[in-house]
């Protein structure tokens, strides 16, 4: 009885919650170990954290301008498609589907399972099979919610964003109190250059940028945002500044209580912190951290499903995934597609290997998207964007992203080579399936609509009826 399309249900508060909820997740509770391990000392690790925050602000500002110039949803994918063309955009889509997004979701899911079970098995480590089982149950719960209602998934994101900030506060306050009492012994020789390993710094930046990742999430739901020209820049600037301040204070609190070896030896840094600083919260903080990871999973599913939705609408993905449930008004097929790959990566994956594995591809394409902003400005000088950043911001961010990607081949050649292979494997797929001339040349029969029609009937989905961009 009513038109089927994605409604504008993301207000400024929900946009802010989406960004906070996506950034403050497992990263701040996992990444301190990765940053410290690859930077060498407490002082250099804090420099890495602040630099990653500054870089995230640069990238967020670039994406805010792209979001006001390009009115479609889809994030990295649509920005690369509109500025650099169909081949690089498909390579991103392929890498995102095969490697980046499932690995990212698996990392967050495993963190959720580990922190949720930690109080029940302390002081012992939670059994790995139990962690993986709980991780999958959490992921499936969020998957079901996003299939059911955009409104409810957005409300959950808002509620969990408050929980995330509370979890940070419970770490920051005890640490700052101890620091004020003069507990500075862990900051002695904070910048010992003998411990610095320059060739490992790209991996430290990957870990830090993983903790900040999420500043681009509003670009994925651009068509569902209320007043996007105003709300995208405002939500981005406020949320990134909030997270930078919160992360710096959280890391100072960690190092006030825990020594270098304690952080490196801990499988769950936040839990080790509470065991030392405030034992009365020993059963509370892990649950808050788990809920924080739960919110990150929710934000990831909400946004990546829109990438698949838009790619299908642009003709680079099967048409079924540009369809919407006739009553729920959710992109149901796109939401459900990640189910098998995330399940596989949770079952076989290790958090730190997965982090390096997908970071290469992610930052390569983010650098290409901001390069696309420079190209778009050059090609369309007549376009008056309501939000514009100085040119040095996208130029410096792009150079740093691509330089870090290049350096990572030396730092971790095995995992980075796997990520590179995943990206390159998209070439034959593009030319055999997407590129129509080669498809016709090889005399492949056109794909049948029979299966798509049957799945439409089964899932109760149809094409979007109203143009929203």
UniProtKB/TrEMBL annotation:
Keywords: Membrane, Transmembrane, Transmembrane helix. It is a multi-pass membrane protein. One of its GO terms (cellular component) is membrane. It is found in: Membrane. GO terms for molecular function: L-amino acid transmembrane transporter activity. Its main location: membrane. The chain crosses the membrane at residues 12-30, 42-64, 76-100, 120-142, 162-183, 203-220, 232-250, 281-304, 332-354, 360-379, 391-410, 416-434. This is XCT protein. It comes from Chauna torquata (Southern screamer).
């Amino acid at each position: 009885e009513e038109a089927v399309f994605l409604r504008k249900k993301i207000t400024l508060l929900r946009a802010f919650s989406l960004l906070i909820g996506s950034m403050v997740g497992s990263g701040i509770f996992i990444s301190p170990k990765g940053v410290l391990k690859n930077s060498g000392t407490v002082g250099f690790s804090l420099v890495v954290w602040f630099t990653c925050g500054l870089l995230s602000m640069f990238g967020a500002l670039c994406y805010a301008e792209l979001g006001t110039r390009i009115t479609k949803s889809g994030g990295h994918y649509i920005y690369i498609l509109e500025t650099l063309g169909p081949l690089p955009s498909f390579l991103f889509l392929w890498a995102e589907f095969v490697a980046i997004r499932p690995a990212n979701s698996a990392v967050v899911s495993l963190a959720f399972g580990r922190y949720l079970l930690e109080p029940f098995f302390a002081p012992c480590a939670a059994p790995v099979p139990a962690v993986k089982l709980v991780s999958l149950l959490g992921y499936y719960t969020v998957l079901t919610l996003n299939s059911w209602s955009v409104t409810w998934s957005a409300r959950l994101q808002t509620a969990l964003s408050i929980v995330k900030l509370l979890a940070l506060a419970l770490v920051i306050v005890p640490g700052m109190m101890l620091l004020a009492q003069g507990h500075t012994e862990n900051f002695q020789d904070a910048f010992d250059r003998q411990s610095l390993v320059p060739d490992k710094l790209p991996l430290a930046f990957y870990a830090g940028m993983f903790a900040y990742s999420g500043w681009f999430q509003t670009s994925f739901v651009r068509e569902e945002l209320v007043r996007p020209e105003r709300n995208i820049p405002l939500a981005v600037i406020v949320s990134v500044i909030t997270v930078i301040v919160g992360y710096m204070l959280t890391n100072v609190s960690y190092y006030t209580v825990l020594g270098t070896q304690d952080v490196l030896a801990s499988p769950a840094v936040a839990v080790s912190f509470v065991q030392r600083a405030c034992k009365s919260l020993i059963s509370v903080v892990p649950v808050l951290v788990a809920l924080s990871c739960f919110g990150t999973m929710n934000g990831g599913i909400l946004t990546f499903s829109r990438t698949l939705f838009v790619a299908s609408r642009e003709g680079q993905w099967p048409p079924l995934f540009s369809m919407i449930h006739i009553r729920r008004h959710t992109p149901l097929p796109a939401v459900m597609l990640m189910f098998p790959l995330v399940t596989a990566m949770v079952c076989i994956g290790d958090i730190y290997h997965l982090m390096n594995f997908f970071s290469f591809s992610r930052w390569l394409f983010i650098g290409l998207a901001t390069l696309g902003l420079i190209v778009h400005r050059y090609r369309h000088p007549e376009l008056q964007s309501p939000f514009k950043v100085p040119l040095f911001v996208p130029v410096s961010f792009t150079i740093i992203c691509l330089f870090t990607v290049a350096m990572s081949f030396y730092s971790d050649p095995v995992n980075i080579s796997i990520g590179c292979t995943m990206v390159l494997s998209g070439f034959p797929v593009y030319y055999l399936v997407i590129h129509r001339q080669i498809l016709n040349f090889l005399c492949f029969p056109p794909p049948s609509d029979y299966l798509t029609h049957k799945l439409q009937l089964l899932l109760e989905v149809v094409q979007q009826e109203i143009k929203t961009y």
